[in-house]
């Protein structure tokens, strides 16, 4: 499985660098477009002077069920790194539920049998929205309905409030109808209740080991029932909002109690299903449930013996978790694997927040390297603060190291991710996101002369939009929705906009042409473009290239 040399083009003489500007989409000026509002002379120059096409980065173009589904960094990097489109988490789960395969799986049957055998409780824990990025509440509803059909008597739900992939203060839009749904199912033989919750950026859903204290707070909330008590999730959300003015993703944890006691702690003999389908923010809580006595990330106080399962296998190499309901897509024949087998040296670099995206997700949800000799992965530790406080994040440090690696001459192909547009965009802070784009632009200005110095080239693109739409818009008026104080209502989710793909090449650009942009290109077309620029033919199973060799 090696690449074949092109008989038309020897490739760029120097290194080829792919720059992923995470969360940088294309949108019209105004409407909270922090990309356009920022002072970005380098990016502006690139878009005007060099060949650029737009790429689809959401919906069916990245394996999601419909074009109403926003893209995300995981599926985006899957597509960038594999050159193919695979059915992804949400679609896989929906198909499994529709076919009934989920409820015939050994994992589901074992989880149910464990509860029946012990006369215990079935717990569901996960992101509580229909954002379709990490989870979908429709999947949760289906599982609860089927649990009742399977004669489960007690169900408890632990909700992680979103406000990131959906509107920033929409939690009650999900809680209120869900409470009605549970009420419609309850009977003398079936007791289903919300047991705990909190904002996704406060508890449970840490990733890349950036802040284990989030997981610790979640453990105390969901498992131990240790936290501020409320009579209902609705009461908790309203009270915490009034007290803190925080958006949903940042709300403090809460425990639902009756007569002064938590209604749903997790105990020995219970079954627990983590219903997120996306892996990055599912791994740490899964490890915490499955770890033995040698677990050292925090004091669990007690570690109940439960049957734990994930919606998917979140890490296929480390096999986390041990049990899962739906098999993940088998992503094969990736760019990284082909390059390694062909003997091409590679560097992958980002800071902690996106390190897994240029490695694990880029390589088709695969941990580790294809070649220890030919591949180098560098992680720059992220700040453990809200990113609107330091919107430049670690982009300068990434660039420092990247320049060093470029000049080392060790690598023919390099890839990096600048997380600024996405991670700061998710905070909803327009000014900070504008600042983050300006910080990113400074790094592009530093990198381009080095690429020229080495007679190299660069592919400058993004994995999805975010910073390009920072305000919730009124579709009828075309104006931003307003908060009570008259300020624009922040949008913290990804967008459905296309992303740029710029080919920067001052030495061999006369050897090929960039194809006409007819609106059909997607992220998966970047892999074939990459190997073409390196002087190789793309594998037949990959999607099309963006260039045509003369």
Provide a concise account of the structure shown:
The chain has 550 residues and is α/β, with parallel strands linked by helices. 32% of the residues lie in helices and 17% in strands. It is built from 17 helices and 20 strands.
Question: Would you mind describing this structure in some detail?
Answer:
This protein is α/β, with parallel strands linked by helices. It has two domains: 4-87 and 330-549, Alkaline Phosphatase, subunit A (3-Layer(aba) Sandwich), CATH 3.40.720; 90-326, 2,3-Bisphosphoglycerate-independent phosphoglycerate mutase, substrate-binding domain. It has helices spanning 34-37, 41-49, 73-82, 89-99, 101-104, 106-118, 137-149, 171-185, 212-222, 233-244, 283-290, 335-342, 352-361, 395-408, 420-423, 430-453, 526-533; strands at 4-5, 16-21, 52-55, 122-127, 154-161, 191-199, 229-230, 254-258, 261-262, 271-274, 307-312, 324-326, 346-351, 375-380, 413-418, 457-461, 499-505, 512-514, 536-537, 547-549. Strands 4, 5, 6, 7, 8, 9, 10, 11 and 12 form a nine-stranded mixed sheet that branches. Strands 3-17-16-2-15-13-14 form a seven-stranded mixed sheet, sandwiched between helices. The chain has a two-stranded antiparallel ribbon with strand order 1-19. Helix 3 runs parallel beside helix 13. It starts with a strand and ends with a strand. The relative contact order is 0.21.
Topology record:
Layout: E1 4-5, E2 16-21, H1 34-37, H2 41-49, E3 52-55, H3 73-82, H4 89-99, H5 101-104, H6 106-118, E4 122-127, H7 137-149, E5 154-161, H8 171-185, E6 191-199, H9 212-222, E7 229-230, H10 233-244, E8 254-258, E9 261-262, E10 271-274, H11 283-290, E11 307-312, E12 324-326, H12 335-342, E13 346-351, H13 352-361, E14 375-380, H14 395-408, E15 413-418, H15 420-423, H16 430-453, E16 457-461, E17 499-505, E18 512-514, H17 526-533, E19 536-537, E20 547-549
Parallel strand pairs: 2-15, 2-16, 4-5, 4-10, 5-6, 7-8, 10-11, 11-12, 13-14, 13-15
Antiparallel strand pairs: 1-19, 3-17, 6-8, 8-9, 16-17, 18-20
Helix pairs in contact: 3-13, 7-8, 14-16
């Amino acid at each position: 499985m090696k690449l074949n040399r092109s008989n038309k083009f020897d490739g760029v003489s120097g290194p080829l660098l792919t720059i992923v500007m995470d969360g940088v989409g294309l949108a019209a000026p105004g409407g909270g477009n922090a990309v356009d509002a920022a002072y970005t002379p380098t990016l502006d120059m690139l878009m005007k002077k060099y060949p650029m096409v737009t790429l689809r980065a959401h919906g069916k173009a990245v394996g999601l069920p419909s074009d109403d589904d926003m893209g995300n960094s995981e599926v985006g990097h899957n597509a960038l790194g594999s050159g193919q489109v695979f059915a992804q988490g949400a679609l896989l789960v929906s198909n499994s539920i529709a076919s009934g395969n989920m409820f015939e799986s050994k994992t589901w049957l074992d989880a149910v049998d464990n509860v029946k055998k012990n006369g215990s409780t079935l717990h569901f824990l996960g992101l509580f929205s229909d954002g379709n990025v990490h989870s979908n509440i429709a999947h949760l509803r289906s599982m609860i309905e089927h649990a009742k059909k399977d004669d489960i008597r007690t169900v408890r739900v632990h909700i992680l409030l979103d406000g990131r992939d959906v509107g920033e203060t929409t939690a009650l839009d999900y809680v209120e109808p869900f409470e009605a749904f549970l009420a419609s199912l309850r009977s003398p033989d079936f007791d289903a209740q919300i047991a705990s919750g909190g904002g996704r950026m406060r508890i449970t859903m840490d990733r890349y080991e950036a802040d284990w204290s989030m997981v610790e707070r979640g453990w105390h909330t969901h498992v131990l029932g240790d936290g501020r008590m409320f009579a209902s999730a609705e009461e908790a959300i309203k009270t915490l909002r009034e007290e803190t003015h925080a958006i949903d993703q940042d709300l403090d944890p809460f425990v639902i109690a009756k007569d002064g006691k938590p209604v749903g702690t997790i105990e020995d003999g219970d079954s627990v299903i983590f219903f997120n389908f996306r892996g990055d923010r599912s791994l740490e809580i899964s490890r915490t449930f499955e770890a033995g006595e040698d677990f050292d990330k925090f004091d669990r106080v007690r570690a109940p013996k439960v049957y734990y399962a994930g919606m998917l296998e979140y890490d296929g190499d480390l096999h986390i978790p041990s049990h899962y309901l739906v098999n993940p897509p088998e992503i094969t024949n990736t760019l990284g694997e082909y390059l390694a087998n062909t003997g091409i040296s590679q560097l992958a670099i980002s800071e902690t927040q996106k390190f897994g995206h240029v490695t694990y997700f880029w390589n088709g949800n695969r941990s580790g390297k294809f070649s220890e000799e030919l591949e180098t992965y560098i992680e720059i530790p992220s700040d453990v603060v809200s990113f609107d406080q330091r919107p430049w994040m670690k982009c300068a440090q990434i660039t420092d190291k990247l320049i060093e690696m470029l000049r080392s001459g060790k690598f023919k192909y390099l890839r990096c991710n600048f997380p600024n547009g996405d991670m700061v965009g998710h905070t909803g802070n327009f000014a900070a996101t504008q600042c983050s784009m300006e910080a990113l632009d400074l790094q592009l200005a530093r990198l381009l002369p080095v690429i020229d110095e080495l007679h190299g080239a660069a592919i400058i693109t993004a994995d999805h939009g975010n910073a390009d739409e920072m305000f919730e818009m009124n579709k009828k008026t075309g104006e931003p929705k307003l908060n009570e104080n008259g300020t624009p209502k922040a949008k913290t989710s990804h967008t459905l906009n296309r992303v740029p793909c710029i080919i920067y090449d001052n030495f061999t650009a006369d050897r090929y042409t960039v194809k006409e942009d007819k609106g059909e290109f997607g992220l998966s077309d970047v892999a074939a473009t990459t190997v073409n620029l390196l002087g190789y033919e793309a594998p037949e199973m990959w999607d099309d290239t963006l260039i045509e060799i003369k």
